[in-house]
Amino acid sequence: MIRAELxxxxxxxxxxxxxxxxxxxGARMRELGRIPDAAIGMDAGxxxxxxxxxxxGRRVSLRRGGQRRSLRxxxxxxxxxxxxxxxxxxxxxxxEVSQKIDGKSYLDIARSGGGLFSTVRATRxxxxxxxxxxxxxxxxxxxxxxxxxxEVKSGYALTHAGEIRLLSLIPQLERRSRLRLVPTFLGAxxxxxxxxxxxxxxxxxxxxxxxxxxxxxxxxxxxDVFCEPGFFSASQSxxxxxxxxxxxLGAKIHADExxxxxxxxxxxxxxxxxxxxxxxxxxxxxDGLAKAGVTAVLLxxxxxxxxxxxxxxxxxxxxxxxxxxxxxDLCPNSWVESMPTVMAHAVYSARLTPAEALTAAxxxxxxxxxxxxxxxxxxxxxxxxxxxxxxxxxEHIAYRMGVVPVEVYRQGIRISPR
Length: 418
Ligand code: ZN
Known about the structure:
It is built from 15 helices and 16 strands. With about 425 residues, it is an alpha/beta fold. Helix 7 (about 235-245) links the parallel strand 9 and strand 10. The two termini are about 30 Å apart. The model has no long low-confidence stretch (mean pLDDT about 95). Zinc ion binds near residues 84, 86, 254 and 329.
């Protein structure tokens, strides 16, 4: 007999995402490992039973003081994995929305000292306690929308000490929020103003000093580069990521966000863990991503929030056999904390089916940040990270727009509502 502290029964369905290869590609992105009329038992932070609800009482018994609840009309999915966030920043840029509406591009705003550089100034000035408070507020809202695991990038300090300070805050955020956080070093987010005309010196400083220190202190799992004209060239990006790899960090690339910059091709050549954005990637480069096993992390809210004409190329990437994952790109330019909102954009602008969007927001996103063994699926023995929705099927999460779970569990503990 299996013993459980909490047993949820009579669910319309559970999408386990626990069958098939990881990451999922092609037609397998629509296979959700569904169990209709399901029950889930949790004990000591882990799932101990996931299977038919009928007859569950003969297989699972409640511990003393345990709880059994019928959740007819509800579905359960793995807690969402947000594979790309710029969570650690100070301030906000609401005034830029009207500039964008008046026709200024992200690059126009950045070149006039606004945009990213105004966030860099605010983040450099902010006390660590303020950065923590602001980031924790974002994490609490993210978890209320069902996220239980998130990648977190540095990148708004653009100095050696500043980037290290940002990364050092992430373990504290993980403890205080209860979410699973995966840190990424993004010192190559932009050329810092001090190095605007001597980018090579900044690249050299990162390669010779910052990356080795980040790796030695265990402050990041991945390194990421913004590979784009005016930011970092493909060859600078390659040097940074090769040095990161030599220091044991995985590679991620902000690839081809504005123009074809060779980012996707570089990701394929390096065998990067992910290539992100891909808004301007030539379709001829998709095959290389598929062959190299690079996961495409799409951030479909970003072009929407940037009033860009581009849309994330979800359909052609999946058709080319590339594993597609999703992230929010949470940052002052595209401030979205809700993965269900990201999933709806993945459906209606990037043309993923609702089932593909769920795969992309769970098991494939977990793979994109190296957490596929721990996050993005539901099975007996794994940590109980789950989101419960009052919906007739799991497709409704991405079919409707911006739905909110009624309960979210992380390691078997209800973290929302708190
Ligand atoms: Zn980004």
